[in-house]
From TrEMBL:
Keywords, alphabetical: Initiation factor, Nucleus, Protein biosynthesis, Repeat, Transcription, Transcription regulation, WD repeat
Subcellular location, record wording: Nucleus
Region of interest (Disordered), ranges: 261-315
Record's GO cellular component terms: transcription factor TFIID complex
Protein name as catalogued: Transcription initiation factor TFIID subunit 5
One Pfam family hit: TFIID_NTD2
């Protein structure tokens, strides 16, 4: 694993707003007001804001090397960027002059240049506040804030509470504006038009802000249409620079280890035996024969060290292959049955759910800080016998795994106590021996499913940890939290192996790529990033969601990523080309769960709107336009075909959907807690 943690932060940050992720069933919302002000990059001063929500303006260091030493800039030096002020009384005139110019420009340029409105508005307002022109700032804000795009409303609400220079100095909000650049992607023609206009008008104030605070990514070719721009904007830092998505990503799958499958007919009895642990989703097309060839897009087999297969894992792979042989082939004509696990009377507040890969156990994380594990097969959960009893067992007997279990402890529910705050994420290990949970108390805990006790508490995040997940190969796991970074851990290390820094707000969800070489993180800064486990680099930045991201799912072939957010949209991404390739509209509330069927034919999404929706994933990803031109310019043309792709909508009575899981035979399991509104 290597124990050197490198921090790589490649993003230019931006002045903007991080709000705490909206409540999973209300539990998260409660933590917002109580969070301390200083985040990972904070100056340590408390937040002096009149608002109850956690707030911070973000930064990202531009760094050449891999390791970043976070130096704390002197706040007054940081703010000096705002010294070069113009005449405060003319700010409204400058802004409305530019606004008239853009609104009167040709249609083809207008959409592109309109992207300037929001970042200019923010910086001009902050410049007025910094230079203590409070009344001008107030009138500037009141006059123009209504013109901004609706998806910036939350940011503007926080901005409106910054009305005095002291507000800017007294906390970490103003951290590092010299390197905070809002990224805009504009065609050369539109850019020339803007430059000419500002220079003719001698409008230096706006030109200074453009130079100082914006990063304009200029491309040659046709300007983009309003639809193309709307699809990609909306994040805290504007769009991603084009080169952010140019690095090569090995999105192929690793070759499955080869071993003989004993063919026998006694499959019926003893399916899902406890003594046969298994790997999470051996990602393969139907049966083992196909994956003998090395996938050309796959990483080298030994690119990162993965744990050896134990005998029990091999047994389990065999079980899995037998199950796969009976798997239902899904498609528009053959939709999965859905089995919904409703948590009734969950007055403790259900905040997280996970289901083992073989669908034998389900775990719930609760706001009362407990973790509860249920068996969903007739087989009860049992603990290992005490040491004294174990010493009496014949170690050589065939059923030794059965004999070590203590029948007296058998029950269908085990409650794990240890956290001191709501549990926001849970994850079973692929071999079903361990369980991870992460909590508002800042820790990730590893529990044994043999003894149902806590083995380790991993402390690295000082703030709430929103999500955690085991690697599909076990051993490694990832966590992400309010401190805006994700961490990669190994179960046998107290310290993280990697720290992934670059998001401008909370990391709200984390997912391993099926080949375990990459990790996707979704954030309240409204972007998704893909990180390379080997070196900690950020290799993709996806912008386009208009709200915090709450769910991620990789397709089983490793080529695509689906993401869901508070904006109720599911976006689809081609990882190799670094492009958005689809948008699924239909949900009316936050999407908390996404899952592809075992062979990737169907994407299921679950939402706070109390529905599960099924989408035709094959059709969504076929005949994609990923030619060189599209990749070079980022001109994406999303088909408006959500209705053709939607295969079904299934309402619950009053249960928000928190988790989805396809069994090995493609039965869809869903879970959530009934809420009596």
């Amino acid at each position: 694993g290597g124990s050197v943690a490198t921090v790589a932060s490649s993003s230019p940050g931006v002045a903007a707003v991080a709000t705490v992720p909206p409540g999973k069933g209300g539990a998260r919302a409660g933590t917002a007001g109580s969070l301390p002000g200083a985040g990972l990059l904070g100056t340590g001063g408390p937040l002096c804001l009149s608002q109850p929500w956690g707030f911070a303006v973000m930064l990202g260091h531009k760094v050449g090397g891999g390791v970043v030493v976070e130096d704390q800039p002197d706040v007054s030096a940081v703010l000096s960027a705002y010294n070069q002020q113009g005449d405060p009384t003319l700010y409204e005139e400058y802004y409305s002059g530019l606004k008239n110019f853009i609104e009167c420009s040709l249609d083809c340029h207008r959409a592109e240049l309109s992207q300037l409105f929001y970042p200019l508005f923010v910086h001009m307002y902050l410049e007025l506040v910094y230079n203590q022109h409070e009344s001008e700032a107030k009138s500037f804000f009141e006059r123009f804030h209504g013109d901004q795009e609706c998806y910036y409303q939350d940011d503007l609400r926080v901005l409106s509470s910054l009305t005095k220079k002291e507000h800017m100095k007294g906390n970490e909000t103003m951290l590092d504006f010299r390197t905070s650049k809002f990224v805009l992607r504009i065609s050369r023609d539109s850019y020339q038009l803007l430059k000419r206009h500002l220079q003719e008008k001698q409008n230096n104030q706006i030109w200074n802000i453009v130079q100082e605070h914006l990063y304009i990514d200029i491309f040659d070719g046709m300007p983009r249409s309003k639809q193309q721009i709307d699809a990609m904007v909306g994040s805290l830092a504007g769009e991603a620079k084009r080169e952010a998505n140019k690095a090569k990503v090995f999105f192929g799958l690793l070759k499955e280890p080869e071993f003989d499958v004993p063919l026998d007919d006694e499959d019926e009895e003893g399916e899902n035996e406890e003594g046969k642990p298994k790997k999470k989703k051996p990602k393969k097309d139907s049966v083992g024969s196909k994956s003998k060839k090395q996938d050309p897009n796959a990483p080298p087999q030994n690119r990162i060290p993965l744990p050896e297969l134990k005998d029990s894992d091999k047994l389990d792979k065999v079980m899995n292959m037998k199950e796969a042989a009976r798997r239902v082939r899904l498609g528009p004509e053959c939709l999965p049955s859905i089995c919904f696990y409703t948590f009734l009377n969950a007055y403790q507040g259900l905040t997280a759910v996970d289901i083992t890969d073989d669908s034998s156990m389900i775990v719930g994380g609760f706001a009362d800080s407990t973790v509860r594990v249920w068996s969903v097969t007739p087989k009860k959960l049992r603990s290992v016998k005490t040491a004294a009893d174990l010493s009496l067992i014949d170690k050589e007997s065939d059923d030794v795994l059965e004999r070590i279990m203590d029948e007296k402890t058998a029950s269908e529910l085990k409650i794990l106590y240890g956290h001191s705050g709501p549990v926001y994420g849970t994850s079973f290990s692929p071999d079903r021996n361990y369980l991870l949970s992460c909590s508002e108390d800042g820790t990730v805990r590893l529990w044994s499913l043999q003894t149902f006790t806590c083995l380790v508490g991993y402390k690295g995040h000082n703030y709430p940890v929103w999500d955690t997940q085991f690697s599909p190969y076990g051993y490694y796991f990832v966590s992400g939290g309010h401190d805006r970074v994700a961490r990669l851990w190994a179960t046998d290390h107290y310290q993280p192996l990697r720290i992934f820094a670059g998001h401008l707000a909370d990391v709200t969800c984390t997912r391993f790529h099926p080949n375990s070489n990459y990790i996707a993180t979704g954030s309240a800064d409204r972007t998704i990033r893909l990180w390379d486990v080997l070196n900690g680099n950020c290799v993709r930045i996806f912008t386009g969601h208009k709200g915090p991201i709450h769910s991620l799912a990789f397709s089983p072939n490793g080529r695509f990523l689906a993401t869901g957010a508070t904006d109720g949209r599911v976006l689809l991404w081609d990882i190799g080309h670094g492009l958005m390739v689809g948008e699924l509209k239909g949900h009316t509330d936050t999407i908390y769960a996404l899952r592809f069927s075992r062979d990737g034919e169907i994407l299921a999404s679950g939402s706070m709107d109390n529905t599960v929706r099924l989408w035709d994933a094959v059709k969504a990803f076929e005949d994609l336009e990923t030619d060189d031109f599209t990749t070079a310019t980022g001109h994406i043309n999303l088909p408006e075909n959500s209705q053709d792709l939607l295969l079904g909508t299934y309402m619950t009575k009053s249960t928000p959907v928190v988790h989805l899981h396809f069994t090995r035979r493609n039965l869809l399991l869903a879970a959530g807690a009934y809420s009596s509104q």
